[in-house]
Specification:
heterodimer, A: 234 residues, alpha+beta, 5-stranded antiparallel beta sheet, two-stranded antiparallel ribbon, B: 112 residues, mainly beta, 4% helix, 60S ribosomal protein L6 (chain A), ribonucleoprotein (chain A)
Chain lengths: 234, 112
């Protein structure tokens, strides 16, 4: 039952002086009509039934060990971060310019925003060498060019996909020591290459449908002499 | 900067000149520097650059982290006056020899 809005309660007990009211406790009992409420309820005040007492927890075995000093419990932190708010100019299929990092200047297609707030982006790889990658919104300029992304399925990508591969630690035997180090960590597992191809297949088809878009994505952005970013329309 | 890559050089920063420190006639305050950004000529144009990161890059004799180049990072804080000059704060104050030197004003953190 939703709580009803009551009219604000007014005291019937005027203040004579600050701290001194006119009527005593027993006089107020009478004035408020609490005697009538009691009579209506058969001699006692109406009250909610107490909830059934929770069964006594099984007596825990008292531990013999106590820490020497009181250990402070860290305050609980239940804050959950929301993903970064996506700029209105960035929608799935927008061409973005990456400003920083290995692929700076590359024009790239935006796929979706991941739960960490980072943007999922792909070159496509065949066109400009940018793989499926995460990029931070602040290091990206959104252009007004859009690519049709309806055929692309980016559902399987999330932040865990990009987590670093943890190698199982092997027990170091003297003989194995040097050989184990030679395992190549740098080659990409085949599944990732296949994922790239799958995403790019649909994307490249959409790109080739638009004149010059392929060349556009292959070219890098650069500021030239006389270009003022604050006057450019992207 | 990735070594060994011949690829095309892209300039993704705007050139700027370090004019000096924030100062009055006889006192200067080295924690804030004044920067003239190329192509920016009025207070209104500076609004786009506010918050953008900038880097003062210089060379040193001793190699640090595998390179002779070193960098002091900073950012654009606010306009200075009416004509497009900008105030900037750096992680550590700019050295006085940097007056008149080049500074790179990047286009990030971007808001476009």
């Amino acid at each position: 039952m939703a709580p009803k809005r009551r009219t604000s309660r007014v005291t019937r007990n005027p203040e004579l002086i600050r701290g001194v009211r006119k009527h005593s406790r027993s006089q107020m009992y009478h004035k408020r009509g609490l005697w009538a409420i009691k009579a209506k309820n058969g001699g006692k005040f109406p009250h909610h039934e107490k909830k059934a007492a929770v069964a006594e927890a099984v007596a825990e075995k008292v531990s013999k060990f106590y820490p020497a000093d009181d250990v402070k419990k860290p305050l609980s932190n239940n804050r959950k971060h929301k993903p970064t708010k996506l700029r209105a100019s960035i929608t799935p299929g927008t061409v973005l310019i990456i400003l920083t990092g290995r692929f700076k200047g590359k024009r790239v297609v935006f796929l979706k925003q991941l739960s960490s707030g980072l943007l999922l982006v792909t070159g496509p790889f065949k066109i400009n060498g940018v793989p499926i990658r995460r990029v931070n919104q602040a290091y990206v300029i959104a252009t007004s060019t859009k690519v049709d992304i309806s055929e692309v399925n980016a559902d399987k990508f999330d932040d865990k996909y990009f987590a670093k591969q943890v190698e199982k630690k092997k027990k170091k035997g003297e003989s194995e020591f040097f050989e184990a180090e030679k395992e190549d960590k740098s080659s990409l597992p085949v599944e990732k290459k296949d994922d790239q191809k799958a995403v790019d297949a649909a994307l490249v088809k959409a790109i080739e449908g638009v004149p010059d878009l392929k060349v556009y994505l292959g070219a890098r952005f650069s500021l030239k002499s006389g270009m003022k970013p604050h006057e450019l329309v992207f | 900067m990735v070594k060994g890559r011949q690829g095309e050089r892209v300039r993704l920063y705007v050139r700027g000149t370090i004019l000096g420190y924030k100062r009055s006639k006889s006192n200067q305050y080295p924690n804030t520097s004044l920067i003239q950004i190329e192509g920016v000529n009025s207070k209104e144009e500076v609004a786009w650059y506010q918050g953008k990161k900038m880097a003062y890059i210089y060379k040193a004799k001793v190699k640090q982290d595998g390179t002779h180049y070193r960098c002091i990072w900073g950012k654009v804080i606010r306009p200075h006056g009416n004509s497009g000059v900008v105030r900037a704060k750096f992680k550590s104050n700019l050295p006085p020899k940097s007056m008149g030197a080049r500074v790179r004003v990047f286009m990030y953190p971007s808001n476009i």
